[in-house]
Design goal:
2 domains; 10 helices; 49% helix; alpha+beta; elongated
Length: 263
């Protein structure tokens, strides 16, 4: 944790300690997991009584709880006060009731205020029962977006085509994370390196960023599609996930007919 991050954490802790409604506060997010770095935001999980939850969120926004000054703040999901300071330090304050807190994974929480013994137990890893269905949905969505590419190319919508390629690339990343067994709770919006193998990273980094023209878009999406299907089919077989064979065959025929592309 940098000096600026520590100063931000100290400010937040003092502001929360001064409010009698706060039952406990916990360092969470990447720092709570021991994986924070100089670019991480400061995440806190805060336990309050149910009747106080909405008021605490409102009081953060109104300055009644003396959080650091912000140039931007908003309330997310009716539970999280998220702020950015003038120096662009970032913090998220997640307010939970005691019942909600009890369902958290204690492995990602470090005590800040209150009774450290109140931390919920670590959640043991278990089988991901939804994974086969999730892979099936991901494969179908990939084929659907891939199959729409002739629409963009036929209309000469190069910018939309570039957005479509980025969607396909994002789904390839998602597939690799699922392939590696990375739980969704462990992922970060601004972290990938530690969750991918060296080979996966090399594959993704080598994918071309398509120019806004027909052939570049076709080449980029074809390359992503081949990589995706090469990873998806073995994973689906290993998990016993249904494979949309008819949809895949129809999409291959569609791309061959409309664009002269073999994937």
């Amino acid at each position: 944790m940098t000096d600026d991050q520590q100063a931000l954490l100290d400010h937040l802790a003092a502001a929360l300690a001064a409010d009698p409604r706060i039952r406990s506060a916990w360092l969470s997010g990447s720092f709570g997991k021991g994986a924070g770095d100089a670019w991480s935001d400061v995440d806190l999980t805060i336990v309050v009584d149910d009747p106080d939850l909405a008021a605490c969120l409102r009081d953060c926004a109104d300055g009644v709880i003396a959080v650091p000054a912000t140039v931007f703040s908003h309330i997310v999901h009716g539970r999280i006060f998220s702020g950015i300071t003038p120096g662009w330090s970032r913090f998220d304050l997640a307010f939970l009731t005691a019942a909600e807190f009890a369902r958290q994974d204690g492995a990602g929480l470090a005590p800040l205020l209150g009774d450290a013994a109140a931390r919920p137990p670590p959640r043991p890893p278990g089988a991901d029962a939804d994974l086969p269905a999730r892979i099936e949905r991901l494969v179908c969505e990939f084929l659907r977006v891939l199959g729409l590419s002739p629409v963009c190319i036929g209309r000469g919508e190069w910018l939309v085509g570039q957005q479509g390629v980025e969607l396909l690339r994002g789904m390839l990343v998602e597939l690799m994370l699922e392939e590696n067994g990375v739980p969704r709770s462990a992922r970060g919006a601004k972290r990938l390196n530690g969750f991918l193998s060296e080979g996966q990273r090399s594959t993704l980094e080598a994918l071309p960023a398509p120019a806004a023209e027909r052939q570049s878009l076709i080449d980029a999406q074809s390359r992503i599609a081949r990589r995706f299907l090469a990873h998806a089919r073995p994973l689906a077989e290993r998990l016993g996930a249904p494979w949309p064979a008819a949809f895949e065959a129809a999409t291959r025929d569609h791309l061959r007919r409309e664009l002269g592309v073999e994937i």
